[in-house]
Amino acid sequence: MLLHCTGVHWDESEIARWLEPLATRPGELAEVFGESLRETTLEWRDGEICDLAVRREEGASARWRAGSQEQLVHVPGTDEASVREAVRALRSAAGRASLPIRTSRDAPLPDEEPGTETARWIRRLIGIFARHAPRHSFRFRIRTTERRVVSPGRPASTAMRRVVSLEGRFTAASRLGDEQRPFAFHAPDSEATADELKAVLSAAAAPRDRPVPVPDGEADVVLAEGCAAVLFHEILSHALEAGADGSPLATLPQARVAVAELDVADDAGRLDLFGGYERDDEGTAPRAVRLLQSGTVGARLTDRAHAGTAGSTGHGRRSGAPEAPLPRGSNVVVGAGGATREEMARRLQNGIWIDQFRGGSADLAGGTFRLHFPRARRLRRGVLSDELGPGMIAGEVIATLRNIEPVIGRQVRACRALGWCAREGQVVPVQGEAPDVLIRRVAVRSAL
């Protein structure tokens, strides 16, 4: 069988034979991973493209792992000569018989020009920006990746994914004058993506009051518009990634840590979300993993190296061919409850209503987290009042989970502002969706 990869044919069976001497002992893992990446970046300023760059990268890596020992060799290019060179160096490093040297290689990559999909997006963005955010400084990226994996004794796999990102700031009206607002949108590229972007940007540009400083102290908060996915990404996905040393949840398997109404999963198979994929970077089809099931700590996210007898959950991910895979989260999916937005506001009564985050982090060893929001609203007697911001919420992971109310919103929304996650220098796409979630006694501070 031949794998066709961006104009290059890989002989799957031959590559598998090259790897076989590296996987002869119990527990040994050997694979070849290849990636072709094409990314077009457009810098927009007030409706004009002020810079355009096209990046093209291709690389192949050969990996051998046995227990805690691991060797990885990366070679530029994805042609068969590159793969052979990587496997030859890996076999030599692992003390196995080397492959003969062959010198033939494919021609260098040609200079890149923007593709037809970029031209279509330029036409769409001109109209969207003119109507909803004429004064702006945005960076738009459209990224296409093709990845393939060959490993002895396993079916070879190849998968392609195209995603788009828009990040930056724009000038919007407030009742006391114009103001700069941050904006981020990340989504898989599809026919519906432009319409969704238009709706999200329109909502972000709605007139608002000038914000007042966030009061420091403890407050009850509602996380709305899907942004609870950011919280659960930080305190559940990261905490339940295999190899996450010191995680406060690692020592609590099957323990009840939240209300029975709370269900949270990590589902890489959700291709409508930014973090989705059909195969992980080890060629494994992902399965949805319950992180919390009826408030009880669930399973861990694993790759082949951490899978044990249960097998990988399909969460072996890497940011590029030069990197070894790590167990990583993908899409956090929070189950819906039965409460309307009005019921959530009545239940909150007095507190803070947050509908977006702009970054966050978790200290797994310390069992704490912090999330930053650009704006929020104060609730007084169940009614939205003052604009607040910017600010942050922080707390202990276990205490915060225990302080989640059993009344959960009925409408689940994608959190398009959540798009990239870094761990150990590797950045991968992530996302999530969530209903409105009410948390009592959260530490809130101003970020002014």
Question: Would you spell out the secondary-structure blueprint of this structure?
Answer:
Elements: E1 2-5, E2 8-11, H1 12-19, E3 28-45, E4 48-66, E5 69-76, H2 80-93, H3 116-132, E6 136-150, E7 157-174, E8 177-188, H4 193-204, E9 217-223, H5 228-237, E10 264-266, E11 289-293, E12 296-297, E13 316-317, E14 326-327, E15 331-334, H6 341-348, E16 351-354, E17 360-363, E18 368-373, E19 376-380, E20 383-388, E21 391-396, H7 397-402, E22 404-408, E23 413-414, E24 420-423, E25 426-429, E26 431-434, E27 437-446
Description:
The chain contains seven helices and 27 strands. The protein is an alpha+beta fold. Strands 9, 16, 17, 18, 19, 20, 21, 22 and 27 form a nine-stranded mixed beta sheet that branches. Strand 13 and strand 14 form a beta hairpin. The longest helix has 17 residues. The radius of gyration is 24 Å and the shape is globular.
For this entry, give a set of tags.
globular; 27 strands; 7 helices; alpha+beta; 9-stranded mixed beta sheet
Quick synopsis:
The chain is 17% helix and 41% strand. The chain is α+β, with helices and mostly antiparallel strands.
